[in-house]
């Protein structure tokens, strides 16, 4: 679960996407840019000369920008019999900012629209932090590092290896990277909350195969793959790209050789596509392009596809991309995915749903115990906009 998402939802989260707000001034790139700007400013200042007889022009002072948070009342909520002030919300908001500042682009209207969720986010964090403190739950730095390592160890092997390679190119070891992550306050909060929640709130969450099957049987419409429309085409191909400066004859020869193999063993089409096709679809999907609309492909490719019957394979067809061996695929009919094919994902989905429900109930119980009253108005749900018939 994501602790930041738990706190900042809807309009309140949108405040963090104000242009310029998410820029991290603490990064090396940011420091370099600031240093360059300062250096340029000094250089320009040295070029300016003012004669003794010439008085500098008076510059009108820049008008101070109105505080966008001034639209909030002085007291925005009550919690545990105490007042929650506007300043507490401002301080909370600044802590969420990468540079600890209120962005210039933030307006009073934006704050007003997000006020309720922003106040609720502050209350949620405060109550959860208090609950963790009361439980005397603590994690050492080693515990946090071990928790991060455990997450990395769950990554798919290819993704894990790619990340390690990228780090090594920057002359950073995985352990160094993890140690840096563990020093990040937001990351530490995330790990502490996740671990606390698993032990104190979610320890009894279970979803069995029986639970998943029951959901599947009563919601089969959610697992139905819609049929392709009659205007749709489906095809797979093997692309032999023509090298720059080539007359294409060598590539055509290779395409004909592959075509002969495909005709001899049509079941090998996907294997040959993965081994020979210059199109990413070769390795990613054994040459399958999936469904596409008429007019979406180049004319030569579409014309050749339309000339084929289902499961028929074309001789090499030339387009601007090279030589294509095309196999027309049957259009997909509406079908219900089998329970076996969705079981693993469905169990994970139902478990996450149960966990979110328990987290929500836990926070609601904390709010009830603390007798929380939010004193800013909750925005009304926006009505659906209907387009008048023409």
Describe the protein's architecture and organization.
By secondary structure, this protein is α+β, with helices and mostly antiparallel strands. Among the domains are: 141-194, no CATH class; 209-220 and 336-369; 227-328, Chitinase A, domain 3 (Roll), CATH 3.10.50. The chain is 51% helix and 11% strand. It has 15 helices and nine strands. The protein has helices spanning 3-7, 10-14, 28-47, 86-96, 108-134, 141-153, 157-169, 174-183, 185-200, 209-218, 249-264, 269-276, 281-285, 299-306, 339-369, and strands spanning 75-79, 82-85, 224-225, 232-241, 288-293, 317-319, 322-328, 335-336, 373-374. The strands form three sheets. The chain has a four-stranded antiparallel beta sheet with strand order 5-4-7-6, with helices on both faces. A three-stranded antiparallel beta sheet has the order 2-1-9. Helix 10 packs across helix 15 (339-369). The two termini are 46 Å apart. The model is unreliable at 18-55 and 383-390 (pLDDT under 50).
Question: Which properties best describe this structure?
Answer:
single chain, 390 residues, alpha+beta, Chitinase A, domain 3, 4-stranded antiparallel β-sheet, 3-stranded antiparallel β-sheet, 9 strands, 11% strand, disordered C terminus
Backbone shape: elongated
User: How many individual helices?
Assistant: 15
- The helicity comes to 40-55%
What separation lies between the terminal Cα atoms? Answer: 46 Å
CATH topology of the domain at 227-328: Chitinase A, domain 3
Strand order of the largest sheet: 5-4-7-6
Q: Strand count, sense and closure of the main sheet?
A: 4 strands, antiparallel
The assigned structural class equals alpha+beta
Q: In terms of per-residue confidence, which ranges show pLDDT below 50 for 5 or more consecutive residues?
A: 18-55, 383-390
The CATH class of the domain at 227-328 is identified as Alpha Beta
Question: Roughly what is the average pLDDT, rounded to an integer?
Answer: 84
The number of distinct β-strands equals: 9
Radius of gyration: 31 Å
In the CATH classification, which architecture of the domain at 227-328 applies? Roll
Written as H for each helix and E for each strand, in order along the chain, the element string is HHHEEHHHHHHHEEHHHEHEEEHE
Beta-strand fraction estimate: 5-15%
């Amino acid at each position: 679960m994501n602790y930041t998402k738990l706190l900042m939802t809807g309009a309140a989260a949108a405040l963090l996407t104000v242009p310029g707000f998410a820029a991290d001034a603490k990064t090396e790139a940011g420091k370099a840019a600031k240093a360059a700007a300062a250096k340029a400013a000094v250089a320009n200042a040295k070029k300016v000369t003012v004669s003794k007889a010439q008085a500098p022009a008076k510059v009108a002072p820049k008008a101070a920008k109105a505080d966008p948070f001034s639209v909030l009342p002085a007291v925005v909520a009550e919690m545990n019999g105490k007042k929650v002030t506007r300043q507490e919300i401002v301080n909370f908001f600044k802590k969420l900012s990468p540079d600890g500042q209120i962005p210039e682009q933030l307006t009073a209207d934006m704050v007003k629209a997000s006020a309720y969720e922003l106040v609720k986010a502050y209350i949620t964090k405060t109550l959860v932090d208090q609950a963790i403190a009361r439980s005397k739950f603590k994690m050492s730095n080693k515990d946090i590092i071990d928790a991060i390592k455990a997450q990395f160890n769950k990554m798919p092997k290819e993704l894990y290896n790619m990340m390690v390679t990228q780090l090594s190119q920057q002359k950073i070891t995985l352990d160094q990277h993890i140690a840096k992550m563990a020093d990040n306050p937001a990351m530490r909060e995330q790990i502490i909350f996740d671990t606390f929640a698993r032990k104190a709130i979610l320890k009894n969450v279970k979803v069995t195969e029986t639970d998943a099957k029951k959901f599947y049987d009563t919601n089969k419409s959610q697992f139905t793959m819609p049929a392709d429309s009659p205007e749709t085409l489906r095809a797979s191909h093997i692309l032999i790209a023509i090298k720059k400066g080539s007359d294409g004859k060598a590539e055509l020869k290779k395409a004909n050789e592959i075509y002969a193999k495909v005709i001899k063993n049509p079941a090998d089409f996907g294997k040959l596509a993965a081994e020979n096709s210059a199109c990413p679809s070769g390795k990613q999907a054994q040459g399958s392009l999936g469904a596409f609309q008429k007019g979406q492909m180049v004319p030569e490719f579409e014309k050749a596809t339309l000339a084929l019957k289902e499961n028929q394979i074309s001789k090499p067809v030339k387009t601007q991309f090279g030589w294509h061996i095309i196999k027309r695929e049957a259009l997909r009919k509406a079908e219900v995915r089998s329970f076996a094919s969705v079981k693993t994902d469905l169990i994970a989905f139902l478990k996450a749903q149960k966990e979110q429900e328990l987290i929500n109930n836990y926070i609601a119980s904390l709010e009830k115990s603390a007798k929380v009253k939010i004193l800013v108005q909750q925005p009304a749900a926006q009505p659906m906009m209907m387009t008048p018939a023409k």
